[in-house]
Amino acid sequence: METALRLEVIVASTRPERFAPVVADWFLAAARQRPEFEVGVLDLRELVLPGDLVETPEVARFRDRIGAADGFVAVTSEYNHGYPASLKTALDSVKHEWRAKPIGFVSYGGLSGGLRAVEQLRQVVAELHMVSVRESVSFAQAKRRFDAAGATDDRAATDASARMLGQLAWWGRTLRAARTADPYPG
To answer: Cα separations (Å) of 108 from 19, 46, 93, 113, 117?
Structure first.
């Protein structure tokens, strides 16, 4: 049997009263039900990644986690039609370790549900030589979509999550095999 894919879920918001844990916990529960994944969490609120992108022991540990992963999901809010600065810092703190790996997006926000942030992120991850999977999960007016226990009855989000995880598994297996057979030229 093939080794499980290492999927790192990046929680992007670092604001004091963020809604990110509700959305992230919901997604993590779905991802952890999939036997093809071993799931980790990189909460950017807990990491100290310097904005000036200098090398620190924390950056080295972060780079090792990124290097060991087979795929990623960014759980991101949308602030002022964009994604959080913490996520940009995380993406810029590492270079080669992102390459030839898939990424999916779970976004949340007001009326747009974070989709404008995701569209910007697709451009950034392409520059990092990543593969952005087509399916994404979006929660418009997110605080209205979850109950007090963190559950949602949003079937579209649940279905999109399952499709996105399937795409991440396919790309994760395919790109891991390709990186093993012929290292990515970059």
So the answer is: 9, 20, 24, 4, 9
Instruction: Note the pTM of the prediction, 2 decimals.
Output: 0.96
The radius of gyration computed from the CA coordinates of the chain, to the nearest angstrom, equals 16
pLDDT in 10s for each residue of the chain, 186 residues: 579 999 999 999 999 999 999 999 999 999 999 999 999 999 999 998 999 999 999 999 999 999 999 999 999 999 999 999 999 999 999 999 999 999 999 999 999 999 999 999 999 999 999 999 999 999 999 999 999 999 999 999 999 999 999 999 999 999 999 999 999 997
Break the chain into its structural domains and give their ranges.
Answer: 5-180
| Fold category of 5-180 in CATH | Rossmann fold (3.40.50)
